[in-house]
Amino acid sequence: MPVIWIVTFLLVLSIAGYVAGRARAFQSASGDVRQMHSLPGYYGYNVALTSLVPALLVLAVWLLVQPMLIESRVAGMLPAEVIPEGSNQSLVMSDVRRVAEGLDIAIERGVMTEESASSIRTEFTDVRGRLGEVGVALGSDVRPEVLRAAQAYRSMSSKGSLAMTIVVGLLAIGGLALAFSRTNKDFRARNVVERGVMALLILAACIAILTTIGIVLSMLFETMNFFRLHSWTDFFFGSTWAPNFRGDSDLSILPLLWGTLYISFIALLVAVPIGLFAAIYLSEYASNAVRSVAKPLLEILAGIPTIVYGLFALLTVGPALMKVFGQGGMAGVGWMSGATSVLTAGLVMGIMLIPFVSSLSDDIINSVPQAMRDGSLGLGATQSETVRQVVMPAALPGIVGAILLAASRAIGETMIVVMGAGAVAKFSVNPLESMTTITTRIVSQLTGDTDFASPETLVAFALGLTLFVLTLGLNILALYIVRKYREQYE
Amino acid sequence: MTDITNLPGNAAEPRKHGSLLEKDARTARRNAAEKRFQVYGMVAIGIGLLMLVILVVNIFSQGLGAFQQTFVTLEVQLDESKLDKNGNRNLEEIKKVSTFGYAPLIQQAFEAKVAADGIETALPGKAMADILSKSAAAQLRDFVIANPDEIGKTVEFRFLANSRVDGYLKGRVTRESIVNDKNVTAEQLDFVDALKEDGVLAKTFNMSFITGADASDQRPEDAGMGVSMLGSLFMMLVVLILSLPIGVAASIYLEEFAAKNWLTDIIEVNISNLAAVPSIVFGILGLAVFINYMHLPMSAPLVGGLVLTLMTLPTIIISTRASLKAVPPSIRDAALGVGASKMQAVFHHVLPLAAPGILTGTIIGLAQALGETAPLLLIGMVGFIASNAPDSIASGLLSPNSAMPAQIYEWAKRADPAFYERAWGGIIILLLFLITMNTVAVILRRRFERRW
């Protein structure tokens, strides 16, 4: 990995820069700290950072941009007739990359020399066989155009990497030399270093924005590709979900949305009453001892990974429900035909959400001013009357916010529904039937072999974007409600 | 429902004269309502705690079995005429004998054992050998290739029993449940009982579940968590190295330096929203950006680590900001008062005081990332892709691997119930990690937290 070596080189250089800069500052002040503008360490940091940071930034940007540029240049080299019927450019490009990778491995293993790798021709050599020897299996014989593109790809990549190494190295050494030459006792090293550190801090804070932009853009582009291949009216308003890898699929979000909302509804039906009553008891009735034990214990439920709940749904709750409602079950009704169902997933998700509802509501109930309770109790109301008629109405907006947050969690939850809800997309009101959700379909469309040119894969991005917008909307609404309410009492 | 406005003394209802010492019907009703309300609360907490207990009991009762495995101890004569016909100990020639060539040796070993200990069975040698795992012959072959000098001698081996026999000893498989099972017969189970009596076959602690790699569908008895644990470890390494510095830097800026302007507002709203974005969306981001766009290797712990970093950052930023906020302003004022710059006040005084809180938040964030599954499925970190432990840090980061939760998911999907036991066992290991991390976080907080 040459990149690791470049980074190591930069780090070593910057440490050397630190030592050198510090020493030079001392020298120019003839060893007297009092004559320097800044503490001696700052001169060192100045040299180290000036050499390290620009070089690292350029390295990062280069690594991002180079593959893109090479990709588009090489793709431009491929003549249109190379792309076979029913395939597309990105598939051919992935072939090109595989061949290029194979050539790299072959050289590494010593099967080919650098020279022969860049000069072999499919007309004379069985490239597929040679690459097969080193463990790179190719689906079909290598066509001459693809091989030539792969060779161009390799030569551009290696030229690019060489240029990158040189540019980054020069930048680091240049930065070091510049900062070193400016180092003397009157140089305002601290101010310069602090400005640099400040820029880094701002950069770190902006990563949050970059992530959001990344999420939105990555899904938006693929969603647009999807809508080019599939009508958006069918996606939003159709009524069947039937992906079909021969093409011509019905991909409508509505049945999935129905399953998602139904499961979330059952989960909230479990979590909201239990969570709310638990919160009321903990904040209004429980002694300190009970509170200090019960609250953390309940919160453990929130810290358990969702895969555990998924397994619990699949292997424990589902079979238990089958024993009651299944064929020949205890209830004798035979309504359930498999362990996965809306109820299975909903119940387990409800358990997961209990602490979510209870701790948020607990905080909100606690923030209702004591004076309101005292007033109510002073008028002769019992404690439960106070809770129901004074505390609850006051805390209601906050509690609605908490429930909305829990709903957004339920809609975005993946592992429990993947393992507990099933895979059948349909509109049904029977909670004992298996149904599927948006998140489940994202997982199933994007795992395994994915072909980014087919609507069956791309639909996952449209689903993801819908999910993102849905949960984001719920969160913003919830935060807005909570914030507005808080202003009343603070 | 009783209503305060309808209490006695209100104009709506005529006043009843009675003694305060006597409880009238309305008071009794209100008191009963009060009692009921309290009971609802207790029941709610009771249900919550009961669920926790059921979950924990369920995990341990189903999963502890995975830590024990049935082994058969046999003395196998490494017959020279079968393994090394020419007798020249040439490794290349020994390697030509496939695992099929080793199967008769195991059968002979069984027959010898049965004859020596006087175990009564009508089974032929092949059926006896079938109670072992399919990995037994390969185990023998690996041993011979590693120690060619042992050919011709008699060596004692511990073989894994197959999953049906193992299930029989653990009570998962019964004589009734195998009626339609082609993999094991009632006679074989009789034979297993006899061997158990004889001490040849025994259930012991199974270290290879903790250290081993995943195995194919056919050999649940051979599957282990070790390699996926390494995958998780490398991911956590990436998460720690990236998210701690970036998270702390972002928090310092937002908490200590940021002016109130639109940029700060956008960042703040962004962070609180990112904390609530479903984890699977981060998986889509990872697939689209890191794998499709940047062409990083699929299934690599590096990519998993990057995705989880983006996911953990908001958690770490939120907790770091809280602990920075908890440092009283007098510390900053004192530092500024003796001539420190603002940057010096923060880095030399505020940050060290906030460090325990930051560390606690980071550990909790890491624990969250460790248990996350959904985004890993999308970037291909599923089970059975790494059969060997990575041999260097670079290959640990870049070669395909799984992660603990993804491995558990993979096992839960397989058809053989023997894998379910492994999945629960894997969960015990995962939970042990999480409990340890959280305990460390709590201890750190108790030990170093300062109240100002």
Quote the average pLDDT of chain A.
85
Largest chain interface and its two residue counts?
A: A-B, 98 and 91 residues
Q: Helix amount of chain B, in percent?
A: 55-70%
Query: Beta-strand level of the residues of chain B, as a percent range?
Result: under 5%
Using the coordinates above, name the CATH class of the largest domain in chain A: Mainly Alpha
Q: Strand order, biggest sheet of chain B? A: 2-1-3
The CATH architecture of the largest domain in chain A can be named as Orthogonal Bundle
User: Low-confidence runs of chain A (pLDDT<50, min 5 residues)?
Assistant: none
Q: What is the N-to-C succession of helices and strands of chain A?
A: HHHHHHHHEEHHHHHHHHH
Oligomer: heterodimer
What is the count of distinct domains of chain A? 2
How would you describe this structure to a colleague?
The complex is a heterodimer of chains A (490) and B (452). Chain A is built from 17 helices and 2 strands. A two-stranded antiparallel sheet of chain A has the order 1-2. The two termini of chain A are 57 Å apart. The mean pLDDT of chain A is 85. Chain A folds into 2 domains: 2-187, no CATH class; 241-489, MetI-like (MetI-like fold, Orthogonal Bundle), CATH 1.10.3720.10. With 490 residues, chain A is mainly α. In chain A, strand 1 and strand 2 (250-251) form a beta hairpin. Chain B has 19 helices and 3 strands. Chain B starts with 24 loop residues before the first helix and ends with a helix. At the A-B interface, helix 2, helix 7, helix 9, helix 10 and helix 11 of A face helix 1, helix 10, helix 11, helix 12 and helix 13 of B.
Labels describing this entry:
heterodimer; A: 490 residues; mainly alpha; MetI-like fold; 2 domains; two-stranded antiparallel sheet; 17 helices; B: mainly alpha; 3-stranded antiparallel beta sheet; 3 strands; extended
Detail the topology: elements first, then pairings.
The complex is a heterodimer of chains A (490) and B (452).
Chain A lengths: L1 H27 L11 H38 L11 H21 L4 H6 L7 H7 L10 H39 L6 H41 L2 H6 L3 E2 L7 E2 L2 H32 L2 H16 L2 H20 L16 H25 L3 H9 L4 H30 L2 H6 L17 H9 L8 H35 L1
Antiparallel strand pairs in A: 1-2
Chain B lengths: L24 H39 L4 E10 L2 H4 L7 H5 L3 H19 L7 H5 L6 H11 L7 E7 L2 H8 L15 H13 L2 E5 L1 H5 L14 H32 L4 H13 L4 H15 L7 H26 L2 H9 L4 H29 L3 H5 L14 H6 L5 H10 L3 H32 L4
Helix pairs in contact in B: 1-19, 4-6, 10-13, 10-15, 12-13, 13-15, 14-15, 15-19, 18-19
